[in-house]
Queue: 4 jobs
Job 1
Amino acid sequence: MTIAFQGIGIPSSCPIALGPAFIDVRGRTRASQIPIAADQVDQEIARLDLAVDAARASLEAVRNQIPHSTPIKIAEFIDAHLLMLEDAALLEEVRRIVTDRLCSAEWALQLHRDTLVRVFDEMDDPYLRTRRDDVEHVVHQIQSFLQPDTPGSDLGSRDLNGFVAVSRDLTPADAILLNHRGAVAFVTEYGGPLSHTAILARSLGVPAVMGIQDVTSYLHPHELLVVDGETGTLLADADDRTLGYFRQRLRAIEARQRRLRELINRPSQTRDAVPISLLANLELPEDVETAKSNGAAGVGLYRTEFLYLNRSDLPDEEEHLATYAEMVADLEGIPITIRTLDLGVDKGATPVGDCGSSVCNPALGLRAIRLCLKEPELFRPQLRAILRASALGPVRLMLPLVTNIQEVDRVLALIAQLKRQLDRDGLEYDDAMPVGVMIEVPAAALAARAFARRMDFLSIGTNDLIQYTLAVDRLDGAVNYLFDPIHPAILRLVRMIIEAGRALDIPVSMCGEMAGDPRFTRLLLGLGLREFSMQPGAILDIKEVVLAVDTRELERRTDALYANLDDADPSELLDALNQG
């Protein structure tokens, strides 16, 4: 009898894998509360320091195993954890707990871990929320040396060629080792699509299914598994008929991928010769190679929040500039849109402000452009660095979470001031660098024409636009069934934004998940969208649709769909549009 498990799918270059199970029982073990005497404090702190040194040596050993020929900058994932091991804010607090509470290093580390995880769990941004995994992983690295008798497995010495690795959790270091040992897929009890391990899995081309509770307890070593990263499904003990279906599907996927690769060098235009710009959303600098290998025409959204994470200080202008300059150089002349800081004080990422999540709604509070305008000393170094990077190649600047025109006017005035400073300092910049806004608040969508009069471009952030318009947290399992990209209100707002751009002859892009979903490509083209920005792995799927359609026909049929929004099921209208 086939047993099915459902989790969060992480599709990759080949989203399906079959193989025997390798069960890794290590994971998030809980320490016991062990009291110590006052004269044992120094000994406990010494144990902690030794464990940190051992964890650092272990990570450095993994880093040294990464081949120089690796096409992506995998080492930076390990570097992020090494930096956390140097973080005084992490370790000094653990030492203080040992001293004040007279408890073991293991217990103190766990208490501080629980505090940090609560902070991340209260964050609004889903990408930043998953950074709790980095805390978990670093704490686990240290705990594994404080508690050496914890059950485990030596990943570094196992031949896992063809195996599916099943674990409670995987650190980026684990994922790298497993990949080097030949594992064909990852299955975990914890984790999500924006975790570093998930990003690594995509980059490594390894399908993964994450978030299957207690999966290590249900499976047996060497049991044949089917991992479907596309649907988030794990199958165990599958019968011959089921295995035959997935093997046939795997062959079909591999054949389709070969066909898609042939599209990379074809011009991205519709059958009626309308050019469509297909851009990439990037989370980290190491994603550049993936974007280029999928034929991205540029970067439509580069998130800069990673620069502010896992540190007690703020990045200065030179650190910002070094990162952006590297990105511009790696992109080799294709344009990049850099989004300014989209964090809030509720996220614990900056030492400014006094509105925490306990006194205000993080989603509606002091964050993104609101925080930057309230704290210009936080904002200026990033703006100066982006301006200076614009002298090195085609750069656009994008402002997140704008609500009213006054915010935009204040930013434009600040940019003009910074340009005068750069002139006095003798530093180069592109005086014509485009400046645009993300439309992700319903108020901004309704005022799209006013924004279009002042800006060089608009970008539709559908993830938040849908969430705010429908009052639905898409990560809340109790209500996320209401998160509907084709709700009539959403389609009307999207069309309103696109028409505002057309009326004033400025480009409009879309950088939310809707842009990278082939189910919506015909609809969006019919609504007039001509610039799509998405996760790099989706580019060729969208391009395949683009090459097959005629925009004039799509616009005619979309107008008919739009006229019936209030009288028919939008999903049925969408199906009809896609089947025609």
Job 2
Amino acid sequence: MKRQLNRLFLIWLLGWIGLPACTLAQEGKQKLTLEETLSFSIFRQMPRGLQWLPGGNKFSQIKRNPKTFAAEIWVTDAGSGESGLLVSGDKLLGESSATQMGGSRGHGMSLGSYIWMPREDGLILSNDGDIWLYNLQDRRLKRLTSTAAEETEIDVSPDGRYVSFIRNQNLYALEIAGGKEIQLTRDGGGTVTNGKFDWVYQEELVARGNFRAYFWSPTSDRIAFLRFDEAPVPEYPLVDWRPLNGAVEMMRYPKAGDPNSLVKVGVAALADPEKTVWIDNTEESDAYFPRLYWLPDGKRVAYIRLDRRQQNLEFVFGDAATGRQQVVIRESDPYWVNIGDYVHFFQKQPRFLWGSERDGGYNHLYLYDYNGKLQKQLTRGEWLVDELEGVDEKGGWIYYTSTEQDLRERQLYRIKTDGSKKQQLTRQSGNHTINLSPRASYYLDYFSSVSSSLAIGAYTASGKQTATLLEADRSQAEKYELSERELLTFQGDNGLTYYAEMIKPVPFDPNQRYPVLIDVYGGPHHQQVRNRGSMGLWEQFLAQQGYIIFSMDNRGAGGRGHQWEIPLHKNMGAVELEDQLRGVAYLKSLPYVDGERIGISGWSYGGYMVLYALTHSKAFRCGIAGGSVSDWRFYDTAYTERYMGLPAENEEGYRTSAPANAADSLHGELLLVHGTSDDNVHLQNAMHMTDALINAGKQFQMMFYPNQPHGIITPSGRHHERRLMFNFLEQHLKDQATGQ
């Protein structure tokens, strides 16, 4: 249940409005309509396909030609800021059509995704499941594959000689110059997949959007990969209700306590493709392998091995030729061990960076030698390193973002590899998401705050701006009556400080008492209250309709270290609700809040929190629960067991944490919303909750959206959902009947 998306895509969602606005009436400005809350036109201005060229001094992006609307790749020099057109989709369309397409599935060449060749002399493109090379020297397009089966998870070897991919669940390498194809695995098919993560790994253990479970050696002669056998994993039916007789797709999904995929760590050599060296060949369903790396010499593989309960972690070196293992680091925690991407192997010295929460529960950076001996702790304090951005080995700098200045912010720092000369590079108060160039000469800064929408700039490694990719957009604030999001702190009756945010109605009258809608997530690791741009116009629309919108971070939320997370261990729901009720008490202390009209709304874990709150308290007039877990036995192994343990070892915790088991205690009006094709939080959850409420004699409202996943994504569905929710709030939170 990863709330966070791909890091840069998340910035699109969280940084595109966040505009300053007065809470008094704003003369000459418009009110939002419900339809306008669904507008994401700002996305058309966002840089697409943005990536650094391998040399690290230039970056490329996809732009749309304003006259022809054709996609184009443009390249910008990070030092001078000068940009130029590299290639147009129109040109590629002409070259890829007619004879070259050869009757394939496609209708021309797309620039939707591209990979730079290591020498910057070409682009690898994918179109309709086949792979193409665009040579920048002769400006010619060459087709590399032409098969009925689709090639996916494409990559290029470090020396640029080979392109690799997955076809029919097997791993391949293709020699670009001669066209020789090397099949590196042969047992793929059915329940076995080589080099591609299964559902649980994609969702819970690796970066979202990352499906590739294989990695080239630095010497371009071997590929390390994970082999998944999903045979032990139970199947779950996803039903498509559109055909006359319906259609069922079975997906492999391990629910809490079920067996996981059998996973092995292997190395395939291009020189001997018939022989795989298995480094970790246990094929256990009770172990996870969430990270895989190569050491710089290309002779050893490093990987993380976690036990089923995720309380014991080992960092293992494996010999690529013999499979011999060496455990270099061991970490354990009585609750769970958090993992991230904090490993860097130095090229010329036998040492590496490692991230750990051993220092008071705050993630910090450590320097180790290859024997697992700690050389130095590089960062320390009651704040955490959020991301390891990269290392400039020549200059001796390590770049990272952290919460040192404010736990609601992310700022970029650099520090010498000996732990000296720490420097803060970003200065604007807010959130900075960094895309560091390969050689750490430049970085792209995605910045937003509560008073500034998303802005993107290019900077030198020392922090000097060289180019602007996207300026902060004030057009929405100039057109509409918008309310500035306020960052708040309050003290709970338990002595803890809580962080919250609020949007007030526009215009705002401090002598009036307003209904409040609490926007909740509440789940572990997600940090809802941040000094960054708002999520969108929906909250602003509700504020214009006379609602206060309030959010807070309860215990379990991210950004405050491991000790803030662990109180929910083996008993999810209870501690989170305790803290949310402290937020309710804070709201009731404000003279402009109507304490009798407080509602709560959330999706995913937030939906779970709505169900739990309405069945375990009487504080809320109404609640909207979307995509909600109703019983943690129905959710996946890796996420659920990390926090709740195994069901057989925590039966009471699973029982008491399930809102469905407390359906007879429902208090307040409930709107239950779910997509019927949700492959994340299955429709089973909504059905189970519905059945329990009916058996308890409880009235509620329910809306299923046919063929929608974990979130309503079609324009018509989104519009219907927003209208449904608004009407529900008007009727039950504002006590006003509404038309349809």
Job 3
Amino acid sequence: MSPSDSISTPARLTTNATVKLPRLFLFGVGLIYILAGLFFRDPWKTDDVVGLATMLTAVKEGGQALLLPQIGVLAHAQDGPLVTWVGAFFIWLLSPFFELFVSPLDAAIIASRLPNLLWFGLLTASVWYGSYLLGRRPEAQPLALPFGGEPTPSAYGRMIADAALLLLVATAGIIWRMHETSEVPALIAFQALAFYSVARMLDRPASGAVTLGLALAAAFLARGWIGSLPIMLATLLIFMPGGILWPRKKWLLLTAALTTILILCWWIPARNASEYWTMNWLLWNTTAFGWPVYKEVLTALRDLPWFLWPTWPLAILAIWRWRSWLTAPHIWLPLMFALWPLVALLFLADSFEPEYSLLAVPCAILAAFSLPTLRRGIVNSLDWFAVMCFSLTSATVWLGWIALQTGWPEQISHNIARQTRGYDVFISWPAVFVAILGTLAWAALVRWRLISKPAGLWRGTVLSAGGLIVTWLLLVTLWMPALDYVRSYRTVSGHLAAALKLHKQPGECVRTQGLGTGQRASFLVFDDIDFTYSSECTLVLQQTSPQDLAAGTAAYSGTGTVLWMGQREPERYEVFRLLRLGKQ
């Protein structure tokens, strides 16, 4: 419904509530968010190390491996090539420089993660400017006060944009994914760019149509139809007949043409290069969709509340409070970008965090528009909830670390020891120093809230974003060595490489049995171990479980010679065996 005199806007706000948040603070929050946990760690399974493996293969092999992502000789016919292209370029360009200071492998790991800075910059800029454009529109403005004092459109739009950005940073589920060398950070960034582009088309349709075409094509090249279809459907529904963007529908022809051309620029050479790869890629895309499955839907409904915390309750509240204004751009645009990823979840056979991630941006934007509709008492309650919640999470991280180091409290120490079996406990004092600084910064932020009692409506989002970032900082400083030990395959890969060097005869090849994609990628990344598919290979690397070995149900039980057997010590369900079999 369009704004009218008969419908009162639910937003109530004074000028004091839109006081400008310091830009330096906003920049610092973003910088700490993306840098903490991005470097100084191994790639972990599965998406993180798989993305790096395709980049390294592209750099090493070039040609078809650059056009069509591969993990060594394995055709990785999933997602798309864009993230591989960008990562391979950064590795090729910057690895020689980093090799002056670290090993070639660590240099490649560092270079491969630099694109995450690009994706995060694109994400934050798109969310901020898109929210600002919508927030300053007349439909979104708060109710005019009888004696004046309401904020100007630009000040109101800036406050909404700041809140949207901080709420996005405060979203719990995406923080780890934003630090992966996978397609997820890029896909979220391209969705945000599509949102900005549609918002831009309200006043500059030509430039908005061009950036929208780039965003849709990039989303497709990042994650195929699984990632791009919800964004494309949202875009189409935004231009509904009778809506405010309907008069600009002709510009969608430019968007469609640009998107199609860019996609075909990859698809045609890809099809000519390998029909096998492209057919498997199409199969991966088409088999991902199906009729809703009861258990899958329940799983998604169980996972989404924690993944989208704390934005989803505020997003629902925004829809309710602005229910008479649903077709106004500031609600309709983010609502469509939230609705269609949610619908897609129902029809995906195996949805998980990469699919959940498409809900983070629109929920944060909707949540920002709920803030001006809240009573002051409710806003203050949310502030205190953020203080209590993140003070508790920070204290929990410290308590767990103390238990890891000292053995007290005993029950917590026992539970941690079960998950980190074989880990040699040590203290990294520089990391502890950074963790202490982060804790003190959180205490200073809480004190600022208590003492200064800021009037800015963004104060609660500052607490939420700051609290999550401090918790994340504590995890990636205090716990990074233990996490690396639990989730990295560097050690077991080194043991396998030594076994192959000892037992592999000249001209002998190695094939696999039951080896997962993440494990294959890890062995390729850490020790350049690749495998073939020839049935003539007499050496076999098998991945199985201790339970199957004990029961005698593992493949090759009782046949062949076991040359080596190994596993990651904290892993209870996974073991590797190097076997030599007779001629097949």
Job 4
Amino acid sequence: MFKFLWRKLRLAHLRKKNPLPRMYRELSPDLEVNLTAIRRELGASPDLIIRRITVGSAPATTGALLYIDGLIDQQIVHRDIISPLLNGEKGRKGQDSKGLLEYLVRQVLSVGAVKKEPKFEPVVQALLEGKTVLFLDGQAEALLLATEGWEKRAINEPDAERIILGPHEGFTENIRINTALLRRKITNPGLHFEEMKLGRRTRTTVAIAYLKGIVNEKLVAEVRSRLKRVNIDLVLDANYLNEFISDAPFSIFPTVGFTERPDVTAAKLLEGRVAIFVDGTPVVSTVPVLLVESFQSPDDYNFPYYYATFIRWFRYISFVLAVLAPALFVALGSYHQELIPTPLLITIKSATEGTPFPLVVEMVMMGAVFEIIREAGVRLARPVGQTISIVGALVVGEAAVTAGLVGAPTIIVIAITAIATFVVPDLLGPGIILRLFFTILAGVFGAYGILIGLLFILLHLTSLRSFGVPYLSPLVPLSPGDLKDVLIRAPIWAMRTRPRLIGWSQPERQPFGFGSSGTEEGEEGEAEDGG
């Protein structure tokens, strides 16, 4: 007890003798006090570099440069900061200490962005963001110098959104590169970015992007409000925020979109949506999102409209097969055999004769085995994962049929379902859950169970909203003018309006028809509205 009190008294005495600036206090004019505070805050970190320097010659001023090794560009620090301070500043004479910082900013330092900071907390945060901090003895302010230069991944095509035609560049983990890629796509002064720091520990940079004049200002305010309400220790990925700002956090359907492509993000902004960038991840979230967007692909607008419409119908059919094929097979094979043609029924019964499990158990069991093989293939290295996926599926399927555990028709249905699942990757998770849901209902109630499940899912989808926009729009509520990019992909010259419930503030995109008359005037008007 006495030992504890003695340590408390000793600590209070040391703090009174050497008052270190706290996170909420201003910097001290004493250089050593500031450096001691930085060391105490960051600990004995070997990557914290403190370079002591002497500025000027008559009178000379002691200073210190601080930066985190690995987060700064060494060439910028040596060329634009250290060299001018040690060489170009020696000729200064008669400059008073009060105006020294201003003199350095205006005539000595050649680094791009410089900011004066009198508070302790922003100085620590700037160090951790890759900036270099300059302290001078006798000055109660520090200079924050932009020297960020950590290693970055090159711009490559995203693996999850590969296309045949069109641009093959994707976002990276650096938010500045990502915003620059978007600026290249939309060279309009109406493209605005707003940044904020989220995550009490990580202090991750988050930016929202929108097109002024096209976006609904209430949507921007709602996105800004939801993000500011996020109270979490860490933000390491876009999904950390998506689960906080989602309209229906318990729904299996995503109400926040995501993409890794700058061209897709630009197209969504031009429709009146808002994009959310998170530093450290190549995924950009977009709101609001509609269900029909999951069946669209960037290649739809690179191929002729008749071929894009043909392929889009295959996506709808594939998703229906991925969700309902096992359930329909179970319902027909277990309850409604009279609906199957007699030759086909005889073939199915002969193939499943002697199997010990009901059809619903076979479907659930083989579906689980396929998901295990798929997950193993995803987590392993690419060459090994592909081998595991192919060989595992063949061996397990053939062995199960040979051993008489499942019938061959079950393996065929599972294979068709597995292939169809990957046609619509945006709905991969919901598709797997819905497939299991409908299969169990079909095994218990037959076709009536499937109808009950479809009614329940339809009611759920009609009740969903994404930032105030109905999730099934433009089908429910019906908007005939927006159907030109749902079941079909109309020619681009016919897509003259933005989605009615999203881009209503400036609905017209272009004049109708093939000609270019009035295009320049329309672009000028849009630029004026955006600016």
